[in-house]
Every structure is written in C-alpha cells, then in structure tokens.
Amino acid sequence: MAYVITSPCIDVKDGACVKCCPVDCIYEGERTLYIHPGECINCAVCASVCPTEAIFHEEELPQAEASFAAVNREFFDASVSALGSPGGACDVGKVACDHPKVADWPPRIMS
Fold first, then answer.
1. What is the rounded CA–CA span in Å between residue 31 and residue 54?
2. pLDDT at 111 over 70
C-alpha cells in the first residue's frame, strides 16, 4: 500500500510534498501530482506537509476520494503516460499529460 494524492491537489500542485519526499516518488502531471505506488515507502512525510490535505494512505482514503488510488496507479501505465517505474521523478520532470479522470476534472477557479 502507498500514499495517494487526491482531488484537492488538482490545479493547485503546491509541491511541498515533492520537496520533502525522501525517495523522489512524486511525479508532476499537467494538473496534479501523482505518487508512484511501487516507489512510495509509506513514510507519511508528504501527507504531513500537504497544505491542501490531499494526501492519504490508500487504506484511509475518504469514500469520495477512493477512486484516486486507481488514478495514481494507472497514471504510470502504458495507456496513460507510459512512465512505468522510472525510479525517481527528478530525472523525469513534468509529464505533459494526466490521468483521464484528472484531465476531465472541472477546472478549479483560483482567487
């Protein structure tokens, strides 16, 4: 099991979680960030610094955000980004796509 980034991150991407992740497993898409489930070591540091409270352990996802476990997992599949398991986000940089659910998410109006 791994930590999961959920809908409050969409169109926000604060990045505090990226800076503190000890294994560099948080990747940037166009509209949100994604945690690679195979690279996450369950340290919980990312969840503790997330200002939008968008990060949960997969087993503790709120019911309304439960589908984001699959969103984070599927983002790395060939059908979405073809990233697979690159072993660290630093060398990958921003990925020019998102999971279809995130891409179709209504835009967040920032004030």
1. 14
2. no
CATH dotted code for 3-103: 3.30.70.20
Task: Give the whole-angstrom CA distance, residue 106 versus residue 111.
Answer: 16
CA 39 to chain centre: 12
Region 35-62: what's the mean pLDDT?
96
**Which residue has tokens 């599927």?**
74
- Which of the two residues, 81 and 36, has the higher pLDDT score? 36
Cβ partners under 8 Å of residue 106, min gap 6: none
Q: Residue 4 in contact with residue 72, Cβ under 8 Å?
A: yes
Percentage of the chain beyond pLDDT 90 is 83
